[in-house]
Amino acid sequence: MSSNFIVREKIVLSDSQKKLFFSGWGQEVYNNSIVEKTTYLSDGLKVNGYLAYSKNTSKKYPCIIRNQEGKKENSAINSFNARE
Predict the structure, then answer these.
(1) Of 76, 47, 49, 78, whose CA–CA distance to 65 is shortest?
(2) Do residues 30 and 22 touch, judged by C-beta distance below 8 A?
(3) pTM metric for this prediction
(4) Taking the chain, what is the end-to-end CA distance rounded to the nearest angstrom?
């Protein structure tokens, strides 16, 4: 099976971002998940997005897709809040 991914880059948070993340979600969530910034092809178009998944591959989890409409800065996803 071929992949439509052009880019898959793991997101690494700074120490201050980790501290903020840990205070909300906890260190266990951070340590047990992976978030990647991606670019993939959809109907021949390049789409930028984020892919989050558990490091635990022994269990199946649901897929959640959040579509971003427009260029609203208040709701834009970036490398930090993609981990939230």
Answers:
(1) 49
(2) yes
(3) 0.69
(4) 30
Report helix, strand or coil for 60.
coil
Query: How many Å separate Cα 28 from the centre of its chain?
Result: 17
Q: Where are the alpha helices (DSSP H) in 1-84?
A: 15-24, 27-31
Q: In this predicted structure, what is the pLDDT of residue 75?
A: 57
What per-residue string of b and e applies to 42-56 under the rule 16 or more CB within 10 Å gives b?
eeeeeeebbbeeeee
Q: Two tokens at 54? A: 């558990």
Q: Which of 10, 11, 13, 34 is nearest to 22 (CA)?
A: 13
What pLDDT, on a 0 to 100 scale, did the predictor assign at position 55?
Answer: 92
Each domain of the chain, given as residue ranges in start order, spans 5-83
Q: What is the pLDDT of residues 25-84, one digit of tens each?
A: 889 989 999 989 889 888 888 888 888 889 998 988 887 776 666 565 655 666 666 665
Query: Which of 32, 56, 37 is CA-nearest to residue 47?
Result: 37
